[in-house]
Amino acid sequence: MSNEPLEGIGLVSADLSDTSGDIAYIDTETRLRLYRKMYECRVLEQRAYDLFMQNLVKGTSHLALGQEAVAAGFGIAMRHDDYTFCTYRGHNHTYVRGVSMSAILGELMGRECGLLRGKGGSMHLTSVEHGAMGSYAIIGAHLPVAAGAAWSAQYRGTQQVAVCFFGDGTTNIGAFHEALNFAVIWKLPVVFVCENNLYMEYTPIEAVTAVKNPAADRAAAYGLEPILIDGNDVDVVYETAGAALSRARKGDGPSLIEAQTYRHGGHSRADPGKYRPDEELKAWLARDPIPMYRERLVSLGIDEEALEAIESESDTAIDAATEEARNSPPPPVDIAHIDVWADGSASWRN
Amino acid sequence: MAELTYREAVGEAIAQEMRRDTNVVFLGEDVAAAGGVFKTTTGLLDEFGPDRVKDTPISEQAIIGAAMGASMTGLRPIAEIMFSDFFAVCWDLVANQIAKTRYMTDGQCSFPLVLRSANGGGSRFGAQHSQSVENWAMAIPGLKVVAPSTAADVKGLLAASVRDPDPVMFFEQKSLYAVKGEVPEGEHVEPLGVATILRPGTDVTIAALAAMVPRALKAAETLQEEHGVSAEVVDVRCLVPLDTRTILESVSRTGRFMTVEENPRLCGWGAELASIVAEELFWDLDGPIVRVTTPHIPLPSADALEDAVLPSPQRIVENVKRLVD
Amino acid sequence: MNVLMPQLGETVAEGTVAAWHKKAGDEVAKDEILLDVETDKAATEVPAPITGVITSVLVQEGETVDVGTVLAVINGPDAAETETETRITREEGDSTVLSVTMETGVVEKLPGDPPAAAARFSQAGQRLKLSPVVRRLIAEHRLDAQVIPGSGRDGRITRNDVMAFIEAGPGEVAAPRVTEVSVAPAAESAAPGVQVPADRPRPAPAQPAAQTFSDGDRVPFDRIRRVTAEHMVRSKATSPHVLQAVEVDFSAVDRVRSRYRESWRADHGFSLTYLPFIARATCLALRDFPRLNGSVDGDALVLHKRVNLSIAVDLNFEGLVAPVIPDAGGLTVSGLAHRIHSVSARAREGQLTPDEFTGGTYTLSNNGSFGTLLTAAIINQPQVGVLSIDAIKKRPVVVESPAGDSIAIRPVGILSQSFDHRAVDGSYSAAFLHKTRTLLEDKDWSAEL
């Protein structure tokens, strides 16, 4: 049984019309930033795929090709000191916080220039200085952690917000429910974003979930408004993100957003994704967020040259980053024996 | 010096640290309004208010996850897990997330948090509320593990644990909560990673932890008075970081080594110590290394059964006698 | 099984052996009376705990000992030897005390070949449980486990027992009695070598006569000195030593050494000396002359399969130890250089383990650092040969050629072997030395590095 693609823009929470005027419309500069971010995410993720096929990226890698709009929309809407928590499918979420392409590719290839110097790998991309507080490889674990970071911001009175990205499969694990309940009762400044790409690993999410919309249909259980949006429309994502962030910053508590989207590839590199029906795949590919947005921008009168400049700059940037990462050596072996403890050491005895 | 019970020392240590540093916060089930199911944290809510002392729902994963997220963004949380057995409910957050994230992120974050819980048997609570689970934590790289045996050590080591920049699993032995002891007044901090020789001796080194320490001391008295055997008793106190130096120095003098462990037999902390002593002091041993432990069974609940299986002073005495023959 | 001094009363701590009803070598049945013991309050008979043969009697009539002291040892029908004790007793070569053999049943045996006696004893003897610290102390002090009283359960020797035994000092043990052994005059030498008439072992005094010296500072022997002194006296008393030497032209070795000097030092951090080459040549020569890699056991020569090379190391004038390189015959010059360097360094730092002192089959003694000509080394029991390497110096040598004789300057050194004339004769030894020399002078040494 296949999921039908959304028609039109989709439901948006009634609360959105009540939000303050700081996102009354989206200006051209922002739109261009949104487009750039999506395009850069695309070339980055595509390059990761290519390098994997050349056996330069080892282990496993979970690509978010097709899901760029959610990452870009939130990334542009967030404050630089907000916190992001995402899953192992987190290259884009990490990138949009300001991490360099070469650091990400380097980490995937296990090189010294990697974001984690090869100690974490694709599934654990983290850059604390950019507020990217980690990519988490155990389903659901980071939801309570995000709540904790939000609690810390609330306690310190800084108005920072924690944004927590996860997939449709996460809505069925215990930690999801604990974290939502917890965040609501303490009114924590955290935004939970469920990227529903319709498949939990290889299984259609509908087959294993008691409700049709895995996140939106559960919001009421925690006293939250259901928010269900078209995750491939970056303008909608951007507006929804802004509203939820505002709410949290004001002290009005958490939000739960379900963004419907679709991944172009399989669950991980090992999976060609052949379990999805052809018509479904075709329909969603036709709603690829990047060409869709390009069309909209052109129709809004934005100069094509500006878009072409973004595209060629991105292509150049990814090539330069690839070169840098490929030339970086493997990390020195002795770093395997450091940084278990805060003082840099790893010793458990005297 | 004041006389405090082990449980009072818990609250006193937390209060000491919360007064000293406003980043120290405390959360757990029934810890605030009720002062903790073991009454270890009465008075804290009154002194520090609901922003810093917080009751949570029954959500171990959320409690530990929140502690993790808070500690990586500037706070120094103390989280209580009511019974140490319940760590099994949130073990992913402890073992996969907290313990490993600093290493995986190339040192970008650290987790200055304390996870404290009521550990161990002797209270007739049955198998799921009586386990000694220090070894679960000891087996995971990235966690510090502390298990004090006296009220003074509770205060000093809990304070040190809060000040430590790394995640500390702090195991309070519930059967010791009512035991009184002399506790230094004023600010008191004991360093982690130091074992103490509570009773010097010449014929055998007995290493014990938490509730087994008073039993080892009692056995040592009996051994001296009734059998003329001089036993040196070492309170290990901290499994990670482990003070191997004190233990090895002791065994190099006595030539004999015994551990007394409340945990079930397999993979107990004493096995690791036995392995270290066997490898590094082989040529100084005058007899086999003996571990006195609870047998490898879940703990039964009836008094007669539980008392029969937990290591007793009598069993320690018998084992030492056989060893020194 | 040990027969212990019983406790004759609750507050009694010692007892006296009043009378023995049996002696060493006697068969005894379980519960048969062995001896009478008494205190000032009581007397009792001590029965045999098992059936067997009394292998040793350790406390004599009239002696008073602590409760628990081993009075005698009975060998039961199912006693078995342990490798441990065989190694310890044989390698110690220490049979200064009452060695007893089952066969002869003699309490005191002429220590003509003490290692063999000790070996046979332990083969017949019982299983001794020696803890790691006890084994280490026994090895370090070259003691005989069989004669240390054990106060532990079943007569187990505890660490305290060994320490007490050591504190008591060597005066407690009887010195060996030595028979005069006449040595056959040296056989003709087959090669230009030097032979020296064999030593005549003198009877070693059981206790040195009390001599008083009125002048001079008295420097008491430390433990190592005492142990070395005992070992040397015993070795000379055991083996009829013959000294034989050859001159060796080291120019072939020197060429290779010079060529590799810098790179070896740079790669390995220590210098490449003559010793590994000599060690290699010795090992190869021992393949052709295996009797020199043996041990005398009674009236047989045991030929060891492998060459375990003992390297004598001087500890800065404070003593001599000879750690072993096991299976040295399987190592090249390069491998030997490393092992020799490692084992000498660790010997000087006191880091050798007891196992590293055991099992040697032939010894090299490098004496050349002070420029000596040759040395008549003392054999390291129970081996039958030791090779001393003295100074290697430039000397004028005669070089023969079809065109006539000339003089050349070559590095020359003397290798002098002391061999046990029970095992081999002078011609065998000389042929071995000839082979060794030939290897040193003619082998292609660069192939070994």
How does this structure look, described?
- The complex is a heterotrimer of chains A (350), B (325) and C (449).
- Chain A is an alpha/beta fold and 350 residues long.
- Helices cover 39% and strands 11% of the residues of chain A.
- Chain A has a single domain (28-326), classed as Rossmann fold.
- Chain A is built from ten helices and eight strands.
- In chain A, strand 5 and strand 6 form a beta hairpin.
- In chain A, helix 1 runs parallel beside helix 10 (304-327) and helix 5 packs parallel to helix 6 (174-185).
- The relative contact order of chain A is 0.18.
- Chain B contains eleven helices and 14 strands.
- A seven-stranded mixed beta sheet of chain B has the order 3-2-4-5-7-6-12, sandwiched between helices. Chain B has a five-stranded mixed beta sheet with strand order 9-11-10-13-14, with helices on both faces.
- In chain B, helix 1 runs parallel beside helix 6 (151-163).
- Chain B is globular, with a radius of gyration of 19 Å.
- Helices cover 27% and strands 23% of the residues of chain C.
- The radius of gyration of chain C is 26 Å and the shape is elongated.
- The termini of chain C are far apart.
- In chain C, strands 9, 10, 13, 14, 15, 16, 17 and 18 form an eight-stranded mixed beta sheet that branches.
- Chain C is built from nine helices and 18 strands.
- The interface between A and B is large, with 55 and 50 residues.
